[in-house]
Specification:
With 399 residues, this protein is of the alpha/beta class. The protein folds into two domains: 5-43 and 289-396, Aspartate Aminotransferase, domain 1; 46-284, Type I PLP-dependent aspartate aminotransferase-like (Major domain) (Aspartate Aminotransferase, domain 2, 3-Layer(aba) Sandwich), CATH 3.40.640. Helices cover 41% and strands 14% of the residues. It is built from 14 helices and 13 strands. The protein binds pyridoxal-5'-phosphate.
Length: 399
Amino acid sequence: MNTAERVRRIKPSPSTAAAQRVRELKSQGLTILDLTVGEPDFDTPDHVKAAAIEAVEAGETKYTPVNGTPRLRAAIAGKLRQRHGLEYTDSRLTVGGGAKQVIFLALMATLDEGDEVIVPAPYWVSYPDMVLANDGTPVIVDCPETEGFKLTPGRLRSSITDRTRWVVLNTPGNPTGAAYTTTELRALAEVLLDHPHVGVLTDEIYDEIWYDDGDQPSLAAVEPRLADRVFLTNGVSKTYAMTGWRLGYGAGPEDLVTAINTLQSQISSCPSSISQAAAAAALTGPQDFVRDTVEVYRARRDTTVKLIGETPGLSCTTASGGFYLLVNCRQFLGRFTPAGGRIESDEDFTRHLLETQQVAVIHGSAYGAPGYFRISFATSTEILTEACARIAAACATLS
Ligand code: PLP
């Protein structure tokens, strides 16, 4: 069957491909230390599961309003009010099968052919392909490590054209863990105020997995004059270990939300009623799960940062949020393996880790960060410690 041009423009997500490769190697009997995983290694909290079971038993098994059950919408509005002091009425909230679907729908609802979307790199793998799938043009803006992997006002200003529809801001970010401070958001807002045709898609999926003081600020709250141009996206996947429940949400201007709901009404009608009940319980119920897991992630992050820092030739910055580290392996490019193979790229480097030490990580190029690789620390300290020892051993063989 011939596929459409829009499908031929894009590729399967590299993280899904990496997970598939790990599964294949495991099925061959190999023990792989898997640091590719983009989801919590914890189980969904019991009270959330109980809410889903109750929903099933109460017959909440039918289509819901396209923009979610009133209970879920109230829970989302409550979270945004409590966390950021933001007020969203029902007509400015939408829900979908994960933040991923909500972001995709926002792009589908707004992009015409040739419209540009500014994507700061390193970026979450899906943004450029989502833009391409919706006929847009991703404008990748390099944000180097020396600038904290963050978009600066200068780089933002020089990337904006008449065709710019959106700038994507993922904070805390995947794959870097970098997060924008209030001051940095305010500086970006100053530029955006000069360009009223540009919207901002904020991806705040890791907002609660947060290690620094205070809370991760949200652009819509930092600069209320942008409130009608910010589409804030988030979800329950990462914070509440609910990746499989597929529930995300978006909050923003009413006309955009209406357009997304129209698309959603023709695509899936609504997300799962059962997942909506579970998500409402997650957002409104006890939050000790979040506090406890963040402390576990923090300890793992600290261990991994220390071990990587002790490995000659490797370095990484400490993540402010999320559960990833982007490790700089540039010093190994151009070196040779014991078998005589030359490490030409970060992809060769990660292949060397996998083939010689059975450690799976994802090459930085997949995130627009050549010369780096991504470690997920959403796995046990034992695995992280052993994996770092093996990474060091693999590095030591390169000459
Ligand atoms: N945004 C970022 C930055 C992510 O890393 C991910 C998942 O990997 C998502 C969005 C998708 O989240 P969801 O499970 O809600 O679709």
